Amino acid sequence: MSEQKKPNKPVKRRLSAKQVEQNRREFLRTSALAVGVMGVSLVGLLPAVQGKSLALRPPGALKTPLDETEFLSSCIKCGQCVQVCPVNAINLADLDKGAGVGVPFIDAREQACDFSCDGLQCVLACPTGALTHDLDYPADARMGFARLDNPRKCLAIQGKGFKGQARGPDFEGILRYDDVDRWNPIPVADYPYDLELCDLCMRQCPIEIRIAQCAAAADEREQNKDRVAQIQGNECPPKHAIAFEAFGDEEGGVKRMKPVILDGCVGCGVCEMICPPEPPAIVIDIKQDVDHMRGVS
Amino acid sequence: MSYIIESFRQLFGSEPRRPDKSDISPEAKAVHLYKKQNPFDKYSFEVAREAHTADSKKWRNRRWATLLVVNLLFVVSYYFDIQLLEGALTASRFMGFHMADLNSALQVTLAFKHMVLNLVIGTATVFVLWLLLGGRTFCSWVCPYHLLSEWAEKLHLYLAGKGWVKDHSFNRKVRSLFYVIFALLALVTGYTVFETISVTGIVSRALIYGPGMALIWVGLVLLFEVFYSRRAWCRYVCPIGITYGVVGTLSPVRVKFVLKDCHHEGDCRKVCLVPHVLDMTVKGKAVHTEVDVSADCTRCGMCVDVCPTNSLRFDIKGLGKHL
């Protein structure tokens, strides 16, 4: 660095042997510092290069899994999305996640995004477009795609019902229950269920809930969907996200049902959060999304 | 013009220009000559120093108060959800109006190769803000790491005074090298590599969103500063300082050196984070009777606080006479 340039400068006094030695040492120290700092920062980059940094991101971050790179590059790590989320679903990645110290992610099993803000507040809060503003409604999100990861654990497939708190009394996750208070999510533990056949994943799916509301409103007013969207300020999802399909034989009057993931799934993670078994029967696959599934991307 | 050139030279790591005899203005020459012929009376200097001690923490207290208030505003805004100052130091909204740290915005733009309107607004706002307030003023008046580093520096100086540690200096040009490399890395890898190790961002987020493991890195950097090299991060690594320094070259807020009052005892250079900017306080080096400290100065005011004879003072260009 500068040591190499110094001789070119018009130096009036000659450097003493001691000064030359000091300069040499400083040069070596400086080189070591440069290598050290660059080394540390590149180690932080490694997981991103290896593709190990994938995580469930807030709505608007992913259109396809390939967008992960773009998401990491555009996120300015300010946490404004964290601040606006009414259910505190968004966390900032720590050092243990490797790439992207400070980038937001969602741990769906602990606290999924239930779209209780309605208007995608995180997307509106994002200053850099890391959460794309192309998104207008929850149904436009492409966070991932639900997958029946562990069908044998699924209570519906076993033909079982469910009674009690979905995730036990100690679970801290919260969820918006429209019939309780549309704007104030309550703890899942405060909302016990009593179901003949467990259909929690479909029952609590924000997309399915929305579709049901739209249908009810449309019936009531005998008006078309667009009009309902206008009135309610939140577009009706065009497609279903999850449905229950009967399968197998009825054994002793118990019908067995299987959850089927449909095109409308946006990967919000509520099904994963609400699923009673441990580990959950249904999870979000972040490497998939609906466009990807259909081979559009 | 020479102020801007000299500012840039010092910002990017060159040593302050050694003035030629012909550079020194006749007025300054006269002061230098007068000082030579009339050496300072040690006794009256000591009196001045004694008299000054009461005032000696004025700017530090103001600065610490500002730094704490700004950072606590982020914390309180989130904690009590009052939506006054949302986000973190890398990007935020002040009462709904976007603000973005210039270096973070630059890194993101280089990596993403695209700038949305909100980021343009935020960057422009912050640019104007620090253009007015003095660029690297951000470092000492806002950056939360600066405060930690200031305490680490105190510890370092204590240990060094005891002879237990030694201060190792680096070549200041390495900071410019880091600046270029981090910019290129963002451009090439499409990832904001510097943000991973940015202690400013890590500390800011830790304050607001709670501590995390990333603080281990901050701790390591602080240990390095305590035991090996005084103020190493701010002096030799952090590109944020260069970004704001460049903005600050045009800022009217400066620390001004007044030659005739100076006793050249050098206390200012001992407390300064960037002592090269105070080179003109060395006997015989000032080229004018009043010299502005270059833009690498963080305007922390420590030299103003420590100077017993008030030869260093804050000045606002164009307003100086009205203050």
UniProtKB/TrEMBL annotation, chain A:
PROSITE patterns: 4FE4S_FER_1, 4FE4S_FER_2, TAT. GO terms for molecular function: iron-sulfur cluster binding; metal ion binding. The chain crosses the membrane at residues 27-49. The keyword tRNA-binding does not apply. Residues 62-95, 102-136, 257-285 form the 4Fe-4S ferredoxin-type domain. InterPro entries: 4Fe4S_Fe-S-bd, 4Fe4S_Fe_S_CS, TAT_signal, TAT_signal_bac_arc. It comes from the Bacteria. Keywords: Iron, Iron-sulfur, Membrane, Metal-binding, Signal, Transmembrane, Transmembrane helix. NCBIfam families: TAT_signal_seq (TIGR01409). This is 4Fe-4S ferredoxin. The lineage of its organism: Bacteria, Pseudomonadati, Pseudomonadota, Gammaproteobacteria, Chromatiales.
TrEMBL record, chain B:
GO terms for molecular function: 4 iron, 4 sulfur cluster binding; metal ion binding. The chain crosses the membrane at residues 64-80, 115-133, 176-194, 206-228. PROSITE patterns: 4FE4S_FER_1, 4FE4S_FER_2. It comes from Sedimenticola thiotaurini. This is Ferredoxin. PANTHER family: FERREDOXIN-TYPE PROTEIN NAPH. The keyword Manganese does not apply. Residues 287-317 form the 4Fe-4S ferredoxin-type domain.
